[in-house]
Design a protein that fits this description.
Blueprint: H1 7-14, H2 20-30, H3 32-43, E1 52-54, H4 61-72, H5 74-84, E2 87-91, E3 95-99, H6 107-113, H7 115-120
Antiparallel strand pairs: 1-3, 2-3
Helix pairs in contact: 2-5, 3-4
Length: 129
């Protein structure tokens, strides 16, 4: 199971009363490595910089799994994007970029998410992910 959901949140969800804040708190508490990694990418944003990023490989498979679960789930990824006010992009099981929503139509964003961008970001040490 990827999320540890407290009983009050489960009960709220069953009643149709769960909101993004509750869900984001569950994600933050359940996937701390993913939360820290995405927060780092968001914090790396700066004026004049096309996007913020975090590109340090996870220290173990456990942390890599957290990051993959967070970014592969539409619900989790969407909640994180809304919470942080960014659009997330992802490469190589660990390279996370945070783009301003206004930059999603930019050349830099399109290059980052392109097959060419993925291929150019390969190296022998990344092949295990």
């Amino acid at each position: 199971m990827s999320l540890d959901v407290p009983t009050p949140v489960l009960d709220a969800a069953a009643r149709g009363e769960m909101d993004d804040a509750q869900f984001v708190a569950v994600v933050r508490d359940s996937l701390p490595y993913a939360w820290t990694t995405i927060s780092s990418a968001v914090d790396d944003q700066a004026p004049g910089k096309p996007f913020g990023e975090h590109e340090v490989p996870p220290p173990s498979e456990r942390e890599r799994g957290e990051l993959l679960r967070a970014l592969a789930s539409n619900a989790i990824r969407g909640a994180l994007e809304r919470h942080f006010g960014v659009v997330l992009a992802f490469q190589n099981c660990h390279r996370v970029a945070a783009f301003a929503p206004a930059d999603v139509d930019s050349t830099v964003y399109r290059e980052f998410i392109s097959p060419r961008g993925q291929v150019l970001n390969q190296s022998p040490e990344l092949r295990d992910c």
